Amino acid sequence: MKKANILALFLLVLVxxxxxxxxxxxxxxxxxxxxxxxxxxxxxxxxxxxxxxxxGLGLLVDVAGGAAVGLSAMSGMMVGAAAGLLGxxxxxxxxxxxxxxxxxxxxxxxxxxxxLVQLLYSAYEWLDGMGAIVLPQTLYTVAVGLxxxxxxxxxxxxxxxxxxxxxxxxx
Length: 171
Prior knowledge:
- By secondary structure, the protein is mainly alpha-helical.
- The protein is built from 6 helices and no strands.
């Protein structure tokens, strides 16, 4: 993907997360779209780029959304890192592998947020935070985002195979 396309994707996800996602919350639980982008970046481009995408997009969401700067960035970085590890160790993952990987990555990101909030603000008890926030948000994010993640990864792989075949024909 070109850098301009990546920037446009980041800005689109930022606008959707800050403007539209609060309106589809269920019981105060919102899907976390930047986690989806961090997962795709990690699976497709690897550990470091996944971490960078998650941290960068999380930082943008923190600044635009008025949250404590760094919480979403750190959580997104963890999602990108976990997805990068998955992408580096699984060749041709199936949709079931992506579902499990997305669940685990988003859960790790939610746990990171919960730990940081607990350390900074002492806002939640551990089990209350897990049951009331992390697990429902993880399930909601995976349910909303898995189809989009699968379609996006398929399109990226298809575009790369077309580009490689063009390069092979030109040579």
